[in-house]
Amino acid sequence: MKVIWILSCLVSLSAIFAANTCQRPKRLDKSFDIGSLDGSWYFVRGLNRNNDCYECHNITFYPAHQGLFFAEEYYIEIMNATTIHYSIESSLNQWNSTTPGVIRIDSSDVNYSLEWRIIDFGLNDNYAYVYYCGTYSGGFPFEGSVVLSRTTALSNDTLSKLEKVATSIGLNLDNYCKIRFDHCDQSSEL
Ligand SMILES: *[C@@H]1O[C@H](CO)[C@@H](O)[C@H](O)[C@H]1NC(C)=O
Ligand SMILES: *[C@@H]1O[C@H](CO)[C@@H](O)[C@H](O)[C@H]1NC(C)=O
Ligand SMILES: *[C@@H]1O[C@H](CO)[C@@H](O)[C@H](O)[C@H]1NC(C)=O
Ligand SMILES: *[C@@H]1O[C@H](CO)[C@@H](O)[C@H](O)[C@H]1NC(C)=O
Ligand SMILES: *[C@@H]1O[C@H](CO)[C@@H](O)[C@H](O)[C@H]1NC(C)=O
């Protein structure tokens, strides 16, 4: 009993420690309304090569009940000429009632918990610039940043806006991979 209790303490401590290693940007869109995520989005830019750079990557958010959303995410990875399709379901809500712009995403499909921070959001709901910090299975921290867009390509106006915002938080949009959507129809191979 005691050993199990100590172990579970260690696990939760490591979760706290891991999350605290994230370099959260100072900037946060505190007027963000989680309801504006409703509908379908493409992930068009990604900073973390291990998590954010796929052949195709899109997500659809559905309102579930009061403040809670349900998400279906889809992405394709091509490894050694093999196309792998992933489909992930998760739930999300505002992290706490006093902090708009911070969203908690939990997925049992991959057993991760993510903190999404909305750095900037398009005035006409056309893009969302997100920083995230997460942990797998209560450990293994990871962080990154993505740009979601209602369309597969960003307009030049949005791009120059995002470049400025990235610079303001010490990041460079040129370091983000660009997700192309030209392999999305590849069928899975064995
Ligand atoms: C992703 O995009 C494809 C192609 O447009 C679409 O069929 C699919 O429903 C989308 N999936 C999600 C989760 O948005
Ligand atoms: C796939 O390619 C990587 C290098 O890109 C290699 O390390 C790995 O062994 C390959 N896997 C298979 C199953 O061939
Ligand atoms: C809610 O967010 C505020 C601002 O970040 C923070 O100070 C507070 O501790 C959070 N409350 C909970 C219950 O997480
Ligand atoms: C999922 O993560 C939790 C910690 O957040 C851990 O207690 C649990 O064992 C994990 N489950 C699996 C199936 O890995
Ligand atoms: C957007 O910018 C690129 C590169 O600067 C340029 O080639 C292209 O013509 C621009 N597109 C529009 C619609 O202005």
UniProtKB/TrEMBL annotation:
Which UniProt keywords are given for this protein, alphabetically ordered? Signal
Q: Which residues form the signal peptide?
A: 1-18
Report the record's Gene Ontology biological process terms. xanthophyll cycle
A Pfam cross-reference name? VDE
Q: Does the keyword Transcription regulation apply?
A: no
Q: Which residues form the VDE lipocalin domain?
A: 21-179
Top-rank lineage group of the source organism? Eukaryota
Q: Name one GO molecular function term.
A: lipid binding
Q: Which residues form a coiled coil?
A: none
The entry's protein name is VDE lipocalin domain-containing protein
